Structures are given as C-alpha cells and as structure tokens.
Amino acid sequence: VEVVVRGVARADGEVGEGGDVGAGGAGGGVEIDVIDNGPGLDAEQLSRLFQPFERAGAQRGAVAGTGLGLALSREFAQAMGGSLTVASRPGEGSTFRLRLPVEPTQVTR
C-alpha cells in the first residue's frame, strides 16, 4: 500500500498540466499509470532511472528529492510480486506503470 500511496501522491504533484493518473484492473491485478507531459527521457537516462540517488537530470530543476523514490518504489513493487516500469521518449513525456497482483480473498462471518 505504501508504494501506491506515495507514488500517487507524488505523481499528483508532478504530472503537470496535461498529465494524468489512472487506475484499472488487468489480468488478476491492478495497474496504475502516471502520465506526464515533461521533457521525456532518453535511453541513457532510462537505463539509470531506477538506480538509487539517480535524478536523471532533475537535480538541475525545481523538483526537490534525493533520487531514492523510484528505486525504493520499484523494490517495494517487486517484493509484492509486481512491477514498476517506465516508457518515455525525449520531447514526449513519460508513462510510469505500477502493476500489482491481487489475491482473491474470502470473507468469513
């Protein structure tokens, strides 16, 4: 739950005008997409994005941070059997996708 709450809260403040946060069910799990309209990332930035303390050029911008958020979020997602991925191209923004499995539960009374 922590990875979802932190990710959506952070995304809400950073997607910018024209960005979007959406959620839905997919193949026995849930997907949350965060779409921004930022500058996008090139292949070299993408290769380092989920490494601890990596800011992918954001250290020169106005967004504060240490570069740990994405690395920790991916670790949490994987620990829960899910994934955190990104698709991006320079000049086109980025789409981050969090996928988490959902186990059926039985309620007893």
Count every helix, treating DSSP H or I runs of 4 or more residues as helices. 3
Number of strands: 4
Biggest sheet character: 4 strands, antiparallel
Q: Which sequence of SSEs, written as H and E, runs from N to C?
A: HEEHHEE
Average pLDDT over all residues: 79
Low-confidence stretches: none
Identify the overall geometry: globular
Give the strand order of the largest sheet, numbering strands 1, 2, ... along the chain: 1-2-4-3
- Approximately how much helix is present in the residues? 25-40%
Radius of gyration: 15 Å
Amino- and carboxy-terminal Cα gap: 25 Å
Structural class: alpha+beta
Architecture overview:
13% of the residues are buried. The chain is globular, with a radius of gyration of 15 Å. It is built from three helices and four strands, in the order αββααββ. Strands 1-2-4-3 form a four-stranded antiparallel sheet, with helices on one face. The mean pLDDT is 79. The protein is 28% helix and 26% strand. The chain starts with a helix and ends in an 8-residue tail after the last strand. It has 109 residues and is α+β, with helices and mostly antiparallel strands. A hairpin with a 5-residue loop joins strand 3 (83-88) and strand 4.
